[in-house]
Design brief:
heterodimer, A: about 250 residues, mainly alpha, about 85% helix, elongated, B: alpha/beta, 6-stranded mixed sheet, 4-stranded antiparallel sheet, 10 helices
């Protein structure tokens, strides 16, 4: 199957996904389950990575700024910009594509190869709508919160790194963070997050839903899903940056 | 009655079903048998609507499968119970949630009533105290019984079973066979079983359809199977010495 066929099949899948749920109470139940599986269970890794990466960005910036003519508050300014514009929305999305994407593909793929999806279809249930729509809504709702948290923790990580290493004064860092704050950047980051969240939920779902074969193919599909989700995120990042900031 | 007329199905240009015609009657356990690759599963999946045939008609009590609107199709599917080969129970749900699932989706009943129904069908398949267990905590035979319970919880008019005995020991297989036959009689439903298990065929096959290379090569009952001279089915059924001896004994007895 060539790439165009996959793209076409992906959009046909979305057509089936975006239908009215057959039973709202069951949908609600699934939605809460997905928020827990895809969102709450990602909190730990997001907090851990963003805190330390924020610290590393601040340290590296501080080490690069060795000229006495460059004010130290630029360390806080650069960390804030890097974390808000790129690290939190894009880098975290790529990490989540690995964690959540592989989970989505393997869980749906396993359902496919063990005939659980056939069982849904035999019952007269729109399996794509039942399985994929709650995942999309869950990530669209929860990921912006995760990314906001990543921004806060990333910047705080830089602050802690400064106070532990004495590479810069925390007062300068805080001044740099507050300097020239543009709320549009948060909007920009959250817009990107929403687009990436949609990609993270749907591309792995596509790879899982149409898997053929056994457990080996489920594993292969998970890998493919993570690769393609990351590729699409990086490409969309480029176009969105051009469109929204260019 | 389920009527199948002149059914053709192919994959990538290769014909898998070649003009199958047959009927499945109410209150009877019908079995589809044949070697691996003969088209049994494809026929079953066509009956279930999971495969769309290229040609032919499948009608459920006069309702033609291919001519139904999406809504009517969904309605028909709610009248179908299916027991999959591996059970196809939802791993993340408990036994109770698995069985309650079709009720939650389609029956507007209070939770208490649904729970009573779940307990009733669990009791019917002789399973107790498993409500809160997950499928992975059950034995193969228990999983099959849960799958049967889920298949009958909506009071289906049509019950389909794909290899219900695969991977089970002979005792458990007999229990499952008897259970399916009892349910068929008790609820007066149409049951179609896809099987390799000749014990099941002899035991509960009130109507047997033998497929060979996508063609219906023989049709009859479990009694007629002993008497038939049809070479294709004789070679298939009596490939084991045990069954050859059983057949000889039966023929001697009925002389």
């Amino acid at each position: 199957m060539n790439y165009f066929e996959h793209v076409g099949k992906y959009f046909l899948m979305l057509k089936q996904v975006f239908k009215k749920p057959q039973k709202w109470s069951v949908f609600r139940e699934m939605l809460f389950r997905e928020i827990e599986d895809l969102g709450l269970k990602s909190l730990g890794i997001v907090m851990f990575i963003s805190f330390f990466v924020g610290g590393v960005v601040a340290i590296q910036t501080a080490l690069s700024v060795d000229s006495p003519f460059i004010p130290k508050y630029l360390i806080g300014f650069a960390t804030k910009r890097s974390v808000i514009l790129e690290f939190a929305p894009t880098f975290m999305s790529v990490i989540l594509a690995g964690k959540v994407g592989s989970y989505i593909t393997s869980s749906i793929g396993t359902m496919r190869v063990t005939e659980q999806i056939d069982a849904l279809e035999v019952m007269g249930i729109n399996s794509l709508n039942y399985l994929v729509l709650p995942k999309i809504i869950a990530v669209l709702f929860f990921y912006p919160l995760l990314i906001l948290l990543a921004m806060v923790l990333g910047i705080y990580g830089g602050y802690v790194a400064g106070s532990l290493t004495d590479l810069f004064f925390t007062e300068d860092y805080v001044y740099g963070i507050r300097l020239d704050f543009n709320p549009y950047y948060i909007k920009y980051a959250l817009t990107k997050t929403l687009v990436f969240a949609f990609v993270i939920a749907t591309i792995p779902a596509y790879h899982g839903y149409y898997v053929k074969g056994g457990s080996l193919e489920v594993g292969r599909s998970s890998t493919k899903a993570v690769v393609w989700t990351s590729v699409v995120i990086i490409l969309l990042n480029y176009f969105l940056t051009q469109m929204l900031l260019g | 009655m389920i009527e199948v007329e002149n059914l053709y199905k192919q994959f990538n240009g290769q014909s898998v079903l070649k003009g199958i015609s047959t009927t499945f009657e109410k209150g009877k356990t019908s079995m589809i048998i044949g070697q691996s690759g003969s088209g049994k599963t494809v026929l079953l999946k066509c009956l279930l609507g999971l495969h769309i045939p290229e040609e032919g008609i499948i009608s459920f009590d006069g309702r033609k499968h291919t001519e139904l609107s999406i809504k009517d199709h969904r309605q028909l599917r709610q009248e179908i119970g299916m027991v999959f080969q591996g059970g196809a129970l939802y791993d993340s749900l408990t036994v109770e949630e698995n069985i309650m699932f079709p009720l939650k989706m389609f029956a507007d009943q209070p939770f208490k009533q649904m729970k009573e129904r779940v307990n009733f069908v669990l009791n019917r398949v002789n399973l107790d105290d498993v409500n809160k267990k997950f499928p992975a905590e059950l034995s193969g035979g228990m999983q099959k019984r849960v799958a049967i319970a889920r298949a009958i919880v909506m009071n289906p008019r049509y019950l389909f079973c794909d290899e219900p005995n695969s991977g089970l020991d002979p005792n458990t297989a007999t229990v499952i066979d008897n259970l399916i036959q009892e349910i068929t009689k008790e609820y007066d439903i149409i049951t179609v079983i896809n099987s390799h298990d000749m014990n099941s065929v002899m035991e509960i096959g009130e109507k047997i359809i033998f497929l060979k290379d996508g063609v219906k090569a023989w049709e009859g009952t479990n009694k007629e199977i002993f008497k038939t001279e049809n070479e294709a089915i004789v070679n298939f059924v009596y490939s084991s010495n045990l069954f050859k001896k059983v057949r000889e004994a039966y023929l001697n007895e009925t002389k």
